[in-house]
Amino acid sequence: MTPHGDPSQVMHSIAAVERDTGIGKDTLRVWERRYGFPTPDRDANGERIYAKAQLEKLRIIKRLMDHGHRPGRIVGQSVEALQHLSRGESSLQPSHLASQVRGREDLGAYIAMLQGQDLEGVRRRFSKKLAQDGLARLVMDVVAPLNVMVGDAWARGELAVHEEHLYAECASNLMRQGIAAIPPSVDPATPCVLLTTFPQEAHGLGLLMAECLLTLHGCRCVSLGTQTPVHEIAQAAVAHHADVVALSFSLSMNPNHVADGLKALSALMPLSIEVWVGGQAPVLRRRSIGRVLVLHELTDIGEAVSNWRHLKQLAE
Question: What is the pairing mode between strands 41-42 and 48-51?
Answer without folding.
Answer: antiparallel
